[in-house]
């Protein structure tokens, strides 16, 4: 059984900040959001976790391997270097959606995302009993995206197709398994899953082929942290590429 | 009539680079992609253009106000500071999708996105006859996203709803008007449009309400550049907020 | 005759900010200072200017080619993305030290560097009559620094020698010519100079050899902007390398 | 007795890279160097170490608390995100200069800083027996730098005075104590020292007052890591400010 530790990272009072005293230049907001995400990716990633940009004002991280002290330091370093602060909620569960439910509630309980009074919440439960199989990462990509889309269609039509495939997969994986799926660029989607078998991944791929007409393949890995599970998943995806298969486990 | 100048930014040979000699740490890829986007946002944004992260290995920019020399400098500065290079294709049209079609073809004609032989393409047509009304930007957001989703549901379920709304809007606007819509974080979507009227925006909002059950509102702006059109659109969106309306023009 | 436009960039109220409510993590301050400098280097550099990190809370830029609107935008983009703001003073003169005197006074006149009441000063005079020969850049480096120091001594002893050479050059060039010299990394020093001849550069090099026992060579360039003068100076320095000379003009 | 673990970070083959195929834009080099330093500051700093930008192509870090695996990861993440790679040498000694001597030799033994054949060296000795008193950090600043210099002189003349004070202190501390001193911005210098007493710090301050006519004060801290020693030193420096003293120990 898995034990996924998820952290919700929510920028405090961001909506109001972006329009006070008046709307700010959009490209400055894009720059700040992206660099904040990049810093989180480095902080969490160098501790073997994963962060997904999600909505940028709200980001989801797999933080198996990071403890309370790590989370405190993360808040402090953001406070020292950005014009905004972040609240962090943490949860653990074998079903990722449940872990995120806990993480989100811990932040919501302390106040609204658009409250000037709520800042730097840090609450939740950490994975005290770490095991080698706590995390499952599934790395999906689109079969021959370059040949079918990137080298043939205009970029927006390629993008629409990838987005439709992603939207289909994200709904299916959440409803069927409580798994959380995130588009990570190119034609890649990374899912944080409970312990699923080969047949369940084949079913997910078939569902997306039927509903969105996008053909996916997937590599699946396991490990005590997101990085270890994820790098194994990437290697398994390379196996798919060489073997011509749709589902490979590390 | 509009005259939107769009630039496709495509990282050269990126797919192969990410797995050579073997798969790279995912969080390092996320960091690099995000910081590359942030640098593009600053370069283009400080010249009053807009860039959208799109798929990160392929990004779409509205570059009215940037000429060939600006594009050459952009390529050079990326080459000097990143482990990758970018190809740039440029097109102009009153329908954004057509401009992007041209921009994409210019890059595709030179070679595949996954070719080791193709690097730093720079080709296309620039908007030689700039006018005050060349660009239309529509800034959509979700009515009371904080109250309905962010402060109530777990983050992934909030995210799914926003994504479904975005997927519906992006398809509709592309098919009905050749407009290009991009999620920019939070509950915000920015569309690059031809010259549309109030009724057309109301129709788009109704379509998304029906298909995805997400209630949008929109502020619309015009200008010689994306920034000027976009900042006007943001102010119009604030008017929606104060007036309680769904569509406002700057 | 030269006409160097210099901008002083001073972070507002920085000293107090770094210790309020209590001293901040040093590495976070280093990160923020360096990234602020890097952003200035990109903004100014992509407009063909130069910025030198100087003391990080006070930075000196050669801004021929940047006007008042550019300076306003620079302030705005920093305000939108950093936890600090900057004041800018601008001056023009054929002697760089005089231009910097003006630039500094404009900021000082508005208030102290450690005043909570003074923020985002923008004042000074701009170079309205730009000419092809307005800027002189001299690019010095140490002859065979790698062979003599980097590959032989421990890093701090290499560093001390380079620093002593820099300290000697900076004092001499300021006193003799009103030129401003900045260490830019490695064994490189860039000086912003008035119109000097070959003999004057030889004299500077001899002075440093005598006083600090460091052997410099220099490439000198001219142009309407710092970048054009500076890239010419770099090429001239390469001529020194190939010709075995100590002073070369582009 | 102290046990300072120092790491030399040296960019591989950087000199040649900056001029191949021809000299690169100076502001792009400045941007890349500064951001590389900032990333090192975050990686090392979040593990409670310190990094000093030194010459940018060669940087010195106090890495008590970072082991071999941390150093390997640091190299990997740089390789994945920058157009350059770094070599790392590590040494431990109670006299910082000796630790740096070892660290530097480990890199030099493997090849020249300007060799195309040498890349990503990782060699040296780590501090296996960590103790609470391993590191001494002394944080110097200039008495009333704002009143005496920043608010009164032009920025370059302020800068010259601070530089002269720094040059004097760096030489004295290295020769008298094998301590390594680094300018960190503003009017601040941080020294990595062996175990020194109050009289020795007073002597250093008097030396600099005599030789460079710059009046320093200092806060001194100790700890198992640079951060713990350094934050204690910052607080001690605040004591100097409130007490009106020149030397305070945490």
Describe this structure in words.
The structure is a homotetramer of 250-residue chains. In chain A, strand 2 (50-52) and strand 3 form a beta hairpin. Chain A has helices at residues 14-18, 26-45, 68-81, 96-110, 145-150, 155-177, 198-212, 226-243; strands at 4-11, 50-52, 58-62, 86-93, 122-124, 135-142, 180-185, 188-193, 216-223, 247-249. Helices cover 46% and strands 23% of the residues of chain A. The two termini of chain A are 17 Å apart. Chain A is globular, with a radius of gyration of 19 Å. With 250 residues, chain A is α+β, with helices and mostly antiparallel strands. In chain A, the strands form 2 sheets. The first copy, chain A, has a 5-stranded mixed beta sheet with strand order 2-3-1-4-5. In chain A, strands 7-8-6-9-10 form a 5-stranded mixed beta sheet. Chains in contact: A-B, A-C, A-D, B-C, B-D, C-D. Chains C and D meet through helix 2, helix 4, helix 6, strand 7 and helix 8 of C and helix 2, helix 4, helix 6, strand 7 and helix 8 of D. Chains A, B, C, D: Its EC number is 3.5.4.29.
For the structure shown, list the relevant keywords.
homotetramer, 250 residues, alpha+beta, Alpha-Beta Plaits, 2 domains, five-stranded mixed sheet, 8 helices, globular
Provide a quick synopsis of the model.
4 copies of one chain form a homotetramer. Chain A has 250 residues and is an alpha+beta fold.
How many discrete domains of chain A? 2
For CATH, the homologous superfamily of the largest domain in chain A is named as: Nucleotide cyclase, GGDEF domain
Specify the number of helices of chain A: 8
* Oligomer designation: homotetramer
Q: Please give the largest β-sheet of chain A.
A: 5 strands, mixed
pLDDT < 50 stretches of chain A: none
CATH topology of the largest domain in chain A: Alpha-Beta Plaits
Helix and strand composition category of chain A: alpha+beta
Biggest interface found:
C-D, 76 and 76 residues
Summarize the amount of helix of chain A as a percent range: 40-55%
By DSSP, the count of extended strands of chain A is: 10
Q: Tell me the strand order in the biggest sheet of chain A.
A: 2-3-1-4-5
Order of helices and strands of chain A: EHHEEHEHEEHHEEHEHE
């Amino acid at each position: 059984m898995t034990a996924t530790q998820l952290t919700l990272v929510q920028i405090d009072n961001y909506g109001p900040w972006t329009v006070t005293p008046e709307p700010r230049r959009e490209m400055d907001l894009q720059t700040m959001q992206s660099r904040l995400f990049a810093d989180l990716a480095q902080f969490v990633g160098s501790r073997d976790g994963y962060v997904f940009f999600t909505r940028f004002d709200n980001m989801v991280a797999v933080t198996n391997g990071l403890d309370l002290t790590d989370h405190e330091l993360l808040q402090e370093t953001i406070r020292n270097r950005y014009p905004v602060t972040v609240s962090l909620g943490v949860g653990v569960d074998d079903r990722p959606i449940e872990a995120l439910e806990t993480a989100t509630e811990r932040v919501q309980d302390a106040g609204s995302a658009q409250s000037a009074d709520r800042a730097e919440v840090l609450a939740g439960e950490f994975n005290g009993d770490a095991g080698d199989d706590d995390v499952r990462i599934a790395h999906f990509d689109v079969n021959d995206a370059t040949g079918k889309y990137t080298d043939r269609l205009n970029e927006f039509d390629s993008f629409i197709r990838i987005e439709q495939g992603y939207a289909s997969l994200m709904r299916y994986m959440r409803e069927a398994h409580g798994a959380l799926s995130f588009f990570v660029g190119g034609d890649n989607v990374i899912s944080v899953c409970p312990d699923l078998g080969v047949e369940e991944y084949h079913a997910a791929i078939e569902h997306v082929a039927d509903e969105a007409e996008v053909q996916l393949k997937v590599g699946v890995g396991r490990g005590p942290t997101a990085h270890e599970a994820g790098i194994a998943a990437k290697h398994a995806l390379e196996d798919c590429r060489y073997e011509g298969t749709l589902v490979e486990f590390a």
